[in-house]
Design goal:
The active site is at residue 218. The chain is of the alpha/beta class. 49% of the residues lie in helices and 10% in strands. It is globular. The relative contact order is 0.13.
């Protein structure tokens, strides 16, 4: 559920996204990644381009042992090979947090609380970066608010990673762009140096909440694009669908957190486009299965990765209703996912609302 803006929230966005860099030498910092899925693995790969050592928290001893033995993740992005001398792999969240200045959270949102609520070490001066594109279900809120309210981690010690950046293309070292949102210029410079490489370019933003919400919304819209494809709608319709989706995203973002932003920038429109169209998109693939006749439950069970858009749709739908925000696309997708409404009939109704 979206929260009212706090005074600290109000400081998170003062200017438009900007890509200008003011480089200055930074003190070396230690960095860790929490998560062992595809995007977490991709982030570890990014960081090993610049860091002599990357700390990596994985879910269990099997994954830890497999990476240490074979030099790659046994389940996700198995083509990515690591020099294990550059990795410190652990299953102990406190060991990772204590060893790191910067912690990247890259678990699926449904597993975040059970992972980091085991923290008992001092984390007061750490920087926490969310690479999570979903709602924390136990708290029905975005990660930025969850960290602030549960752990008293203020926005000055937070950052958000946005795309467009599919893990599979990072694995292939195809040129990709990250947007990193943080309110502190010194933190932004530090993170630029950590992530920028020969195949990763970094843009800066101060719109922490806008970037986080847009990353959640684009997953829901990607499910809709997949449903349309599965139902047999063509590229012409899906182009109109995505055009309406970015306008609806702008309406939603203004309704929950109104600040100056340009939704045509890469972190918003770009991330929506790649998630709605790419065959790598797990949310699009989930929608495609539903459009082809799978039940929602069977479609979810057939996937070996978490489609964040499914879990987020419930919270986003209810937030829109609470704030009286018009979201016909989200309403349609929610009805299909949670009210067992017929996809074909729902999309036929939606076509009359799109322009």
């Amino acid at each position: 559920m979206a929260k009212k803006k706090t005074k600290e929230d109000a400081k998170t966005v003062k200017t438009k996204n900007n890509t200008a860099k003011t480089a200055k030498p930074q003190q070396p910092c230690s960095v860790g990644v929490v998560g062992s899925g595809s995007f977490a693995t991709a982030i570890v790969k990014m960081l090993t381009e610049n860091c002599k050592m990357v700390h990596w928290h994985v879910r269990n001893e099997f994954v830890k042992g497999a990476i240490e033995l074979r030099g790659h993740n046994p389940t996700y992005l198995t083509s990515v090979s690591f020099n294990t001398k550059n990795l410190n792999i652990t299953t102990d969240i406190n060991a990772l947090v204590a060893a790191c200045d910067v912690i990247v959270l890259a678990t699926p949102s449904i597993y975040l609380a059970q992972t980091i609520e085991k923290m008992t070490c001092d984390y007061a001066d750490k920087i926490f970066i969310s690479a999570i594109k979903g709602i924390v279900p136990e708290h029905n809120d975005v990660v930025a608010h969850y960290l602030k309210e549960k752990f008293d981690i203020g926005f000055r010690n937070q950052a958000v990673i946005a795309g467009p950046c599919h893990a599979e293309e990072v694995a292939m070292e195809r040129l990709s762009y990250l947007t990193i949102a943080t309110v502190e210029e010194e933190v932004a410079q530090k993170l630029d140096q950590l992530f920028t490489s020969r195949f990763i370019k970094v843009n800066n933003s101060t719109d922490i909440l806008g970037n986080e919400y847009s990353a959640i919304l684009k997953n829901i819209y990607a499910i809709g694009a997949g449903i349309a494809s599965g139902l047999g709608y063509g590229d012409n319709f899906i182009a109109v669908f995505v055009t309406n989706a970015i306008r609806e995203m702008e309406t939603f973002l203004e309704g929950v957190y109104e600040v100056p932003r340009d939704v045509n920038e890469s972190a918003y429109l770009g991330d929506l486009l790649v998630t709605a169209y790419s065959l790598f998109s797990r949310n699009r693939n989930l929608g495609n299965l539903i459009g082809k006749g799978y039940t929602v439950k069977s479609a979810i069970q057939s996937m070996n990765m978490v489609a964040e858009g499914y879990y987020a749709a419930d919270s986003i739908y209810n937030t829109a209703k609470e704030k009286n925000i018009s979201t016909p696309i989200i309403d349609t997708i929610y009805g299909i996912l949670y009210e067992d409404k017929n996809p074909e009939k729902q999309f036929k109704k939606l076509t009359a609302k799109l322009t």
